[in-house]
Write a structure and sequence with these properties.
Elements lengths: L5 E6 L2 E7 L11 E4 L5 H9 L3 E4 L3 H15 L10 E2 L2 E2 L4 H19 L2 E5 L14 H8 L6 E4 H16 L1 E4 L5 E4 L12 H8 L5 H4 L2 E5 L5 H8 L4 E6 L2 H13 L6 E5 L8 E6 L22 H13 E12 L1 H4 L5 H10 L2 E9 L14 H6 L2 E8 L1
Helix pairs in contact: 1-2, 4-5
Length: 390
């Protein structure tokens, strides 16, 4: 379990210290007060906004209710303000401005809701009334620990939710209409957006696979794309990732389906050694800085992984092989990256586009007009780019 430092507070006239854990990398709070059921939501909201962390010392379920009350206050629409006008016209925000404001609001929301803290024992048990049994969920997320620690209640509830996802699994439509279940781990992006899986499932395999039935899966995640490739009867799939949680998650899913003889998991940055007839990569789709380790599957700072994949692809492709890049154009509609930039990167990497298959996402946010990014999401297209050597 990662040690983020020591949290300090005063209790019964004595100074107490405990390990502090935060997946967001937040430093231990400097101002910590003890709170219980007598704390009102309005007072708690004011304290959180002022930067005071609250260590809960009463009934666990009441703490959950308080967190919900804080969330309702954070999400409450602001009071109506006068429109800013310039030259008698309303100043319209650009897509990039809306995205930056959205991320700022999400960051502020996470900061405020992260101010309600919970103590957890060395055995991952919570010493509060009506506390749930969370030891197994915490072991899955953090591993075994020998020391008690303090965590935000919001993060703890995320660990519990991930545990439930892991138990139930996510149904995926696979080859020949067969349903298979993928079991995501805490901190590993769940394949809830099935359109990119369908693209990989349906795209005709390159001719080179007939003679050299080997594929690379760059950034394995839960292992879903490696599994799809194996089910498409590719004899050898080598999957890479740098994240230990992803490697463990992929191995579990692959073992469950008895596909380990076909799929090899390798810890490494981007490409394994050698060449392949097919190399698949589904990099993070938005070139922005992640605010926590849990966001690395969504945000790719300065398109580092995307550029790394493109720049290394030519050297790892067999002469008649193809690289399949799965990418959304949401970044283009948000003003984060242009289509011309992507095409230039492909050309500069010594690659050419053999074709592109498109599909539209159908997740809930596409139809949510209250979403600040609705216009971009409604126009979004997910593509499988077929790339080859020039």
């Amino acid at each position: 379990m990662t040690n983020n430092g020591l949290l300090q507070w005063e209790e019964s006239g004595q100074t107490h210290l405990s390990q502090w854990h935060s997946e967001n990398g937040i430093a231990p709070h400097k101002r910590v007060v003890l709170v219980d059921d007598t704390l009102t939501a309005d007072v708690a909201y004011r304290m959180a906004c002022e930067g005071t962390a609250m260590l809960w010392k009463s009934d666990f379920q009441n703490a959950r209710q308080l967190l919900q009350a804080l969330a309702s206050r954070v999400d409450r629409p602001p009071k109506k303000i006068k429109r800013i006008k310039e030259n008698s016209q309303t100043v319209e925000k650009s897509a990039l401005d809306r995205f930056n404001l959205y991320r700022l609001a999400q960051s502020q929301r996470a900061r405020i809701l992260g101010m309600l803290l919970i103590q957890v024992g060395a055995d991952h048990r919570i010493p509060l009334r009506r506390a749930p049994e969370v030891s197994q969920a915490c072991i899955e997320a953090y591993g075994v620990t020998n020391e008690p620690y303090v965590i935000s209640l919001r993060e703890l509830l995320g660990v519990i939710s991930a545990h439930e996802w892991h138990k139930k699994g996510v149904p995926i439509l696979a080859v020949n209409g067969e349903k298979l279940i993928i079991y995501p781990h805490y901190g590993v992006f769940s394949p809830v957006r099935g359109e990119y899986i369908e693209l990989v499932r349906n795209e005709p395999l390159p001719k080179a696979v007939a003679e050299h039935s080997i594929a690379f899966d760059i950034g394995v995640g839960t292992g879903i794309l490696s599994i799809i490739l194996a089910m498409r009867e590719i004899k050898q799939v080598i999957a890479t990732d740098l994240d230990d949680r992803a490697l463990s998650c992929a191995k579990e899913n692959i073992d469950r389906l008895n596909l380990s003889p076909q799929i090899q998991i390798v810890k490494g940055d981007l490409f394994p050694a050698g060449e392949a007839a097919l190399i698949v990569c589904n990099p993070p789709w938005l070139p922005a800085r992640p605010s926590s380790s849990l966001e690395h599957a969504v945000y790719d700072p300065e398109s580092q992984m995307l550029k790394g994949f493109l720049n290394g692809l030519k050297d790892h492709l067999l002469s008649d092989g193809e690289g399949w890049l799965i990418l959304s154009d949401l970044a283009e509609y948000l003003g984060l990256r242009s289509r011309q930039e992507l095409l230039d990167w492909i050309n500069q990497a010594g690659l050419k586009v053999m074709g592109r298959t498109e599909t539209r996402p159908i997740h809930k946010k596409v139809f949510d007009e209250s979403d600040p990014l609705h216009a971009a999401r409604a126009a979004e297209v997910t593509s499988l780019w077929r790339l080859a050597r020039q």
